[in-house]
Every structure is written in structure tokens, then in C-alpha cells.
Write a structure and sequence with these properties.
Structural class: alpha/beta
Oligomer: single chain
CATH class of the largest domain: Alpha Beta
CATH topology of the largest domain: Isopropylmalate Dehydrogenase
Number of domains: 2
Distance between the termini: 15 Å
Shape: globular
Strand content: 15-25%
Number of helices: 11
CATH architecture of the largest domain: 3-Layer(aba) Sandwich
Length: 320
């Protein structure tokens, strides 16, 4: 399978144009749209994003939430929703519960977060009796288009798991690897991040990184090259890795960055976005179906790219 763009793209004025994500969206042309429950699209950006993803052929939406609010938002933003199914619920919590129920019984192929809080939606997703859990830990991955980096960059987990255990990190790592395969990275290089490159009992993330590296060697993590601990500079810069004399098949050329915890991952993702002009599409993995989890601060292109990722996952599931 062809990968998302392998090289950095810049415009004539030298400004990065995020063509990787644009081409990701184009790659989905001709695929059957994912039947998607859009959960509580009760503000302009979330409803607009859902309809734009529909126009681009990425999703077929089912709008789930308070009917009066959704129709009022549509009218205020001059959006025509007359041809789309609307499942009325009294409030956002009920919308999350109904969308998850629809997913559980196979009525939809994906979920898209609207204007409700992430934890409100995920509370229903991870519910033991009624949720969408599998035998794999649920995790989030960003696919970043970074101007200065010569390949797509995945960061996990910066949105779901707060302080993951070693076994959690194993699942988070495998989720990201399997996802990388679907988007066309055949043998991704996974850098398990910490603050230093040496193992120290005083810094638990280094011990986890070393264990994950060994787990990959022993077949407990498959389909990738995994190495760590690596600091961020040594993971993405060949020059930094060379200066520190780090001999590694991953150092300086990572495809996936596995962060120690949510706080570090979230800060890294936002620094790339706001300081480096990076564009990060996000998706939730490890559930029964993909969940498009965007932020209210995300630009339209990022929301579309996230929907494109969900469609690629849905398409792969259909073919399995």
C-alpha cells in the first residue's frame, strides 16, 4: 500500500502547505464513505466539519443529539441538514450513550466527536457492559504533518491514557503500529521517549522503554522496529543521534513517538502545532470501531484528515 506523503512539501514562498494531509484526503476518493454517528454536533464548527466531511465523500453522517439545538445551529450557519438522519436525544450524555449503542449493534462504522467533552464520550466508549472495548487497550494517535520532518510522524498517546502502565504501553504501541500499516508504513520505526537515552531506576519511563524494546525483540510487539529510551532530539534528528553516538535502527528516523504519559504527549503535540506549524489529525484506536476525536481548536483541514483516517480504518476492516 502506498504511504501517505514521504517527503516534505512546501509552497513557492517556502511556507509548508500540509500537502500530506491534503493527499491523504485525496487518497480516500472512490472509497465508500463510513457510516458515522456524529455525537452532539451542537456548535457551528462541529456541524460544519461533519457536513464538509460528507461533501468530501469521507462519511455518511447520522446526527445524534438534541434536535432543536442541532437544527438551530444548522439554521444559524446556513447549513442544510434536511437529507440527513437525525437521532434525537435530550442532552450530550444521552447522545454519547445512544451513539455508542448504535456502534455496538453495528448500525454505524465510526463515531465522530461533536461539541461535547472528550471524557463524556469516552466514558460511554469504555463502559464495561455497554461500551466498545476489545481485548486491546484503547488509545489515541496523532498523525502529524510537520514542515521540518521528512516523513509522517505519529505521536501516541496524547489524549486518552493518563499514566499508562507497561502493559498499557504495549497495547498503545501495537495499536499505533497496526495503524501505521494501514496508512502504508510497512515497518514503522518506534521511538519510546524519555528524557535520557540510558536506563535508570530513578526514571521509570526509561525502564518501560527498555522493556518495550525487549518485548519487540521477543515477539510480544510485532510489525515494527522498537527502540528506547530515546530523548526527543535523538529520536527525530540523525545529527543529534550521531553526536551522542547512539547506535540504533530507530534513532534519528522515527515514524512513531511513544510518549511516557498523557501530559508529555499533549504538550509535545501542542508545541508542534503552535510553534512548528504542524498539522495533527487524530483518531482513537483499540475500540470496536474508529473514533474521530478532534479539538474545537482544530482547523477544517485537520478535521477532514481525521475523518480520512477513520475511513481508511473502516475500509481495512471491511476487507478483513
Amino acid at each position: 500500500m502506498d504511504s501517505v506523503l514521504e517527503t516534505t512539501q512546501t509552497g513557492r514562498d517556502g511556507v509548508h502547505t500540509h500537502l500530506r494531509h491534503d493527499q491523504l484526503i485525496q487518497r480516500c476518493k472512490g472509497l465508500r464513505p463510513a457510516l458515522t454517528a456524529v455525537v452532539h454536533p451542537c456548535d457551528g464548527p462541529s456541524l460544519t466539519a461533519a457536513l464538509e466531511a460528507t461533501r468530501q465523500g469521507l462519511i455518511t453522517p447520522i446526527l445524534v443529539g438534541p434536535e432543536k439545538k442541532i437544527r438551530a445551529i444548522a439554521e444559524a450557519n446556513h447549513l442544510d441538514i434536511s437529507s440527513y438522519r437525525l437521532v434525537a436525544t435530550p442532552h450530550s450524555h444521552a447522545a454519547a450513550a445512544e451513539a455508542v449503542r448504535m456502534a455496538r449493534v453495528g448500525e454505524v462504522e465510526a463515531l465522530m466527536k461533536g461539541s461535547l467533552h472528550t471524557d463524556e464520550l469516552m466514558h460511554e466508549v469504555v463502559a464495561v457492559q455497554t461500551g466498545l472495548c476489545t481485548d486491546r487497550r484503547i488509545s489515541h494517535v496523532y498523525l502529524f504533518d510537520v514542515p521540518e520532518y521528512p516523513r509522517p510522524l505519529l505521536i501516541t498517546d496524547a489524549a486518552i491514557n493518563i499514566t499508562p502502565s507497561l502493559s498499557d504501553k504495549r497495547d498503545i504501541c501495537q495499536n499505533a503500529i497496526d495503524f501505521a500499516h494501514i496508512i502504508g508504513i510497512d515497518r514503522p520505526k518506534v521511538a519510546v521517549l524519555s528524557a535520557v537515552e540510558t536506563v535508570s531506576a530513578k526514571l521509570p519511563s526509561t525502564v518501560d522503554a527498555a522493556a518495550l524494546s525487549k518485548m519487540a525483540e521477543r515477539g510480544q510487539i510485532t510489525g515494527a522496529l522498537v527502540d528506547g529510551p530515546l530523548a526527543f532530539d535523538n529520536a527525530i534528528s540523525p545529527q543529534a543521534a550521531q553526536m551522542k553516538e547512539i547506535v540504533s535502527p530507530v534513532a534519528g528516523q522515527a515514524d512513531i513517538l511513544l510518549v511516557p504519559d498523557l501530559e508529555s504527549g499533549n504538550m509535545l503535540a501542542k508545541q508542534l502545532t503552535f510553534f512548528n506549524g504542524a498539522d495533527g489529525a487524530g483518531i482513537v484506536l483499540g475500540a470496536r470501531l474508529p473514533i474521530i476525536l478532534t479539538s474545537r481548536a482544530d482547523p477544517p483541514r485537520t478535521r477532514l484528515a481525521s475523518a480520512a483516517l477513520a475511513l481508511l480504518l473502516v475500509t481495512a476492516k471491511r476487507a478483513a
